[in-house]
Amino acid sequence: MTVEAVLLGSAQDGGFPQAGCACAACRAAWAGTLAAEAPTALALIDHEAGASWLIDATPAFPTQLNYLKRAAPDAPLRGIFLTHAHIGHYTGLIHLGREVMNSDRLPVYATERTCGFLTANAPWSQLVAFGNIALHAVKPGTPVDLTPALHVTPIMVPHRAEFSDTAAYVVEGPARAFFYCPDIDGWAQWDEDIATVVASVDVALLDGTFYSAAELPGRNLAEIPHPLVTESCALLAGQAARVVFVHMNHSNPLLDPASAERRSVEDAGFSVGATGMRWVL
Ligand SMILES: [Zn+2]
Ligand SMILES: [Zn+2]
Ligand SMILES: [Zn+2]
Q1: Which ligand is nearest to the CA of 247?
Q2: 15 C-alpha to ligand 1 centroid (Å)
Q3: Distance of alpha carbon 225 from alpha carbon 231, whole angstroms
Q4: What is the mean pLDDT of each run of 10 residues along the chain (281 residues)?
Q5: How far apart are CA 88 and CA 2, in angstroms?
Q6: Which ligand has an atom closest to residue 26 CA?
Q7: Which CATH code fits 3-273?
Q8: Is the pTM of this model over 0.85?
Q9: Cis ω on the peptide bond leading into residue 123 (within 30° of 0)?
């Protein structure tokens, strides 16, 4: 078990429970009768190299970094990959600044556009100017070789691009390959075929933001597009064993292990992400 991945959260950007929310699920999570989940992030650990990396720096970065330290005390954090510049995926970087960790040129890997966003906008620009982070622009399709046993390759995906474009990542270890895609507008909008991509890896962590369109009464799903879990299950029925849903919105019934929706997804062979899931790579 020299290289492994650990899931550090499985909720959408706001986490679960969500700020200010009094829906039944969030009330249960505030009360502790449903498990809380931090926003989705994945840790990559190479024990032999004695190093670890995060994909995404969420608002729960302090807790997630602590979890990683306990899971891999032999492998300190050596860098962070970002998927995009929506709040659940990069704002944890704020803890690297002088007010908190004052890190020394910690490598941050992101697309050229996301690097440009961080360089041009405060307070992120200060992390760059003060040398707390060192930006590394990643290129779609070009692997970043972190160690001889661990390789991370960005693939661009369509997703609301207000501040940045969005990358998903393929992670390859000595034994297994991973696909990490917490946010995408829809599988049909992508120039890759999701079934082919899932078939090419051993585990696929996929955008499971919304279970069905019934979930957000009064809000137009076209403004916050995501592939519905019901659609993904239909598309990927033949390879359910590889698929783990992550990035669940607080409204998603998959967050409740006792829900009928959760049972139906798991009965079909799919998995639902939860903090602490570990895979050997
Ligand atoms: Zn997100
Ligand atoms: Zn809620
Ligand atoms: Zn997003």
Answers
A1: 1
A2: 10
A3: 13
A4: 93 97 97 97 98 98 98 97 98 98 98 98 98 98 98 97 94 97 96 98 98 81 85 97 98 97 98 98 96
A5: 29
A6: 2
A7: 3.60.15.10
A8: yes
A9: yes
